[in-house]
Amino acid sequence: MRSIHFVLFILIPFLGNAQMNLQAVKEKAKKSMEVKSVSSLSNEDIVSGLKEALKVGIEKAGSKASSIDGFNKNENIRIPFPHEAKRMEDKLRMIGMGARVDSFELALNRAAEIASREAAPLFIQAIKNMSVNDGLTLLKGNDDAATNFLKKNTSSSLYEVFKPIVENALRKVKVTQYWTPLASRYNKIPLTTKVNPDLEDYTTKKAMEGLFTLLAQEEKKIREEPAARVSNILQKVFSE
To answer: Taking the CB of the first residue and of the last residue of the chain, which one, N or C, has fewer CB atoms within 10 A?
Structure first.
């Protein structure tokens, strides 16, 4: 009996280590297969797939954003009162002008929705012009890796072409007719510092942020859901 106990004492740690080693081998083999599978794609294929994902994503994002309440009823992208005028908003609400503040915020969001109707072609052109040297890194990155890459590399140029569209949208919703009474009333409050934010700049940046947020959501879908891969290149790249 003592001999059996001794043998078990020797074997149990060995068997435990063997099981751990076997698991490690399985994990290594799995990773090797994944790398081998992805390596069958050329960098050109991967880049084409990533750009197609962004193209499909921004078309869907633009459609969502440009619908009625696409911005206004989506808490993830809704445009609030300008942050630098937060004190102004609080004081105006305190003196009973909350409804006018809400109307002003609605106008900002309506402008973003109108502008978003023309956003997709601008984003698609930026996607086409985007230079990607290492597609594999983006493909194997986070769920929003391609979106973040686009944002980092094209935001400045997108801002320049998108801002005039937002300015036109702000004129359509007559945002100044909502802002002017607010600013005028606030400036009459004793001991207040006048606030006059650049509404065109603010709305343009917020609208772009919203579109990038929606685009990231669409990219995640394409990575995770086969049904979202609506073209051959998307199936080829993201099914690997």
So the answer is: N
Is 79 in the same domain as 25?
no
- In this structure, the answer to whether residues 31 and 49 fall within a common structural domain is no
Q: Are residues 87 and 35 in the same domain?
A: no
This prediction's pTM:
0.82
Q: Are residues 51 and 29 in the same domain?
A: no
133-167 pLDDT tens trace: 999 999 999 999 999 999 999 999 999 999 999 99
Stretches where the chain sits below pLDDT 70 are: 1-39, 240
pLDDT of residue 63: 97
Domain that holds residue 1: 1-40
One domain for residues 31 and 50: no
Count how many residues are written for the chain: 240
Residues 6 or more apart whose CB falls under 8 angstroms from that of 165 comprise 115, 118, 119, 122
> Which residues are CB-contacts of 236 (< 8 A; sequence separation ≥ 6)?
41, 45, 49
Residue 139 contacts residue 37 (beta carbons within 8 Å): no
**How many Å apart are CA 217 and CA 231, to the nearest integer?**
18
| Nearest CA-CA partner of 208 in 111, 105, 138, 129 | 111
CA–CA distance, 170 with 87 (Å, rounded to integer): 23
